[in-house]
Specification:
about 325 residues, mainly alpha, DNA polymerase, domain 1, hpI Integrase, Chain A, 2 domains, two-stranded antiparallel sheet, about 10% strand, globular
């Protein structure tokens, strides 16, 4: 045993780390959304590469053992690095911290120390610019300007309609198969098997979207001569119908970016989700209705659309008395 002399009156015995405990399962299994899992693993590897020396890529089987060696000082050093060296905005840092807090919370459930436990997110104002970026008029302009001349362009405009009418998250749209579109008593629903919460959800489908999707389905059926069972198991929006390969998020993002360029705007699939939520609020939908439509677990997330409505309606401005100011001519 190595014994260090701390001072003339005491001895210090170096501490050993507790024996590694098995989690019994991979902590990443807690994340049902592939997009969330991909993002969280990306943030985690960036964090661990900052903490530990060496340029080699961190392998999956190393992650847990490296995570357990992190201290609060390491976390504070990383936050300083993100602020000073990377010059990231508070919103960007919060995304990273939220991911790390979630991952370490999972690890904490199995008895490990959580160096992120006392770390708080930065206070930031809700970004209404992002919420209000794409208006209903913008949506109509894009649809009017977009040219459909082949299968891909037909698929892309159908994606655009579906994102707006359903308010779906990107991953929910990418996972959608034709068998998930069901009917009961002339009412149509989408069964979302993989949601952000990990729970199955049913989303009602607008009549206009029903017509659009079934016309698109018939087009694919006739173009590729698919058997009914084969068609039902086909991804609605695929990169290859023949191979039944679903689109990647990167491909979906690029499709929406290109459509935004038609009106000179830099937009993402999530901007379309914001647009329909804002329109629902403007058209009288209440907080609970919008929450349920979007699939939010907490109304606090939904409240920003009510704030957007208040800004757009300008009700407060209308209550300001008119001073009847007469401008003098030059």
């Amino acid at each position: 045993m190595n014994i260090k002399i701390k001072d003339s009156n005491s001895l210090t015995i170096p501490r050993k780390k507790r024996t590694n405990r098995s989690t019994g399962r991979n902590i990443f299994e807690a994340y049902k959304s592939p997009k969330t899992l991909e993002d969280y693993q990306f943030y985690l590897k960036k964090f661990l590469n900052f903490i530990y020396e060496g340029d080699a890529n961190i392998k999956g089987d190393e992650l847990i053992s490296l995570m357990t060696g992190v201290t609060e000082d390491d976390v504070n050093d990383y936050i300083v690095y993100l602020i000073d060296d990377r010059a990231l905005k508070k919103t960007s840092i919060n995304k990273i911290l939220s991911a790390m807090k979630s991952l370490y919370k999972e690890l904490e459930n199995y008895g490990y120390d959580n160096p992120f436990k006392k770390i708080k997110l930065f206070k930031v104002a809700r970004n209404l610019d992002h919420i209000l970026k794409l208006s209903f008029d913008d949506i109509k302009k894009i649809i009017g300007l977009y040219t459909v001349n082949n299968f891909k362009s037909y698929r892309n405009i159908t994606i655009f309609y579906t994102l707006f009418y359903s308010g779906m998250r990107s991953q929910e749209l990418l996972d959608l198969q034709f068998r998930h579109i069901t009917e009961r008593d002339n009412n149509y629903f989408m069964k979302l098997e993989k949601t952000k919460s990990g729970r199955e959800q049913y989303k009602p489908v607008h009549d206009d979207l029903v017509k659009i999707l079934y016309e698109y389905k018939n087009f694919i059926h006739n173009l590729y001569s698919l058997a009914d069972k084969q068609l039902e198991d086909t991804f609605v929006f695929s990169s290859s119908v023949v191979n039944n390969t679903k689109l990647s998020y990167r491909a979906l993002y690029d499709i929406i970016q290109d459509m935004g360029k038609l009106i000179g705007k830099n937009i993402s699939p999530h901007n379309i989700r914001h647009s329909i939520a804002t329109e629902l609020s403007l058209n009288g939908a209440d907080l609970i209705e919008i929450r349920d439509f979007l699939g939010h677990s907490d109304t606090r997330v939904t409240e920003i659309y009510i704030n957007a409505k208040n800004i757009l309606e300008k009700r407060t401005l209308e209550k300001i008395p008119d001073l009847h100011i007469k401008m003098q001519d030059d």
